[in-house]
Every structure is written in C-alpha cells, then in structure tokens.
Amino acid sequence: MKAVIDSDVLIDFLKGVPEAKKELALYSDRCVSLISWMEIMSGTETPEEERQCRSFLMQFRVIEIGREIAEQAVMFRRAHHLKLPDALILATAHHAGCILVTRNTKDFTSKTPGIRIPYRLS
User: Fold this and answer.
1) Hey, is 31 helix, strand or coil?
2) What is the pLDDT of residues 6-64, one digit of tens each?
3) What is the β-pairing status of strands 115-116 and 61-63?
4) What is the count of structural domains for the chain?
5) Is 86:115 a contact under the CB 8 Å cutoff?
6) Does residue 107 fall inside a structural domain?
7) Among the residues of the chain, which ranges form H helices?
C-alpha cells in the first residue's frame, strides 16, 4: 500500500513511539512531502541529529512540489480552510495516489477521504 507519511508520525517514529513503528511497517511504498522533509530537517539541532534524520528520510520517496500539487493545495486550502503546509501535504498525497497518514486531528478527520489517523497519543 502507498502512503504519504506526515511529519507528526515521522517525529513519533524518531522518538521511538511504538505505534509509529507499527504504522510505518504497514506500507511498502512510503513517501513524504517535501514540506514534511523540510519540517523534520529544520528540527535538527546537532550535526549528529541531522545525519540521523537524513539517513532515516532516505527510506522514503520525497515528492517534490510542482504546479499541479500547488494548484490542488490552493483548492484544498479554500475548501477545508487548511494552513498552507497542511494543504500542500494533503495535495501531495492525492497527487501521488496515496493515503495521508497523520495524527493531525486539528486539521484532518478520519472521515476525510484519503486520510488515515492511525493512533492518538495521550
């Protein structure tokens, strides 16, 4: 199954959250939006953290943001009142024919087509 993995799930994986590890194991084709890649990389504070994150992210196909994704993001932003990064990540998943795996229940619901909210942290 193909999935675009959102930043929050990636961060959980890096922090050792078992649910995130189980979730990532479900997908044979794992992708990230360039937005999520940037969010993960900009959160590194040391050269070692940066090296580890780069190594981790190499197991994902990074989907660049082109004109088609940008156009779709504008439509999602208008229709669902999303912040631009969230609209871009959702548009990336739709463009790639993937589901979006996220914990972002503030902006997305499991009833939104193409969204999977696999777990919640207490």
Assistant:
1) strand
2) 999 999 999 999 999 999 999 999 999 999 999 999 999 999 999 999 999 999 999 99
3) unpaired
4) 1
5) no
6) yes
7) 7-14, 18-24, 34-42, 47-57, 67-80, 84-96
- Residue range(s) defining the domain that contains residue 13: 2-65+97-116
Any idea what the CATH number is for the domain that residue 48 is in? 3.40.50.1010
What token pair was written down for 76?
């999602």
Question: What pLDDT was estimated at residue 113?
Answer: 82
Bridge partners of 32, per DSSP, are: 62
Q: Residue 110 domain-assigned?
A: yes
Query: Does 110 have pLDDT greater than 80?
Result: no
Residue 80 maps to a domain: no
Residue 73, in any domain of the structure: no
DSSP for residue 112: S
Q: Which two tokens stand for residue 43?
A: 């959160």
- Residue 54's pLDDT is 97
Across all residues in the chain, what is the average pLDDT? 95
Structure tokens given for 117: 């909210």
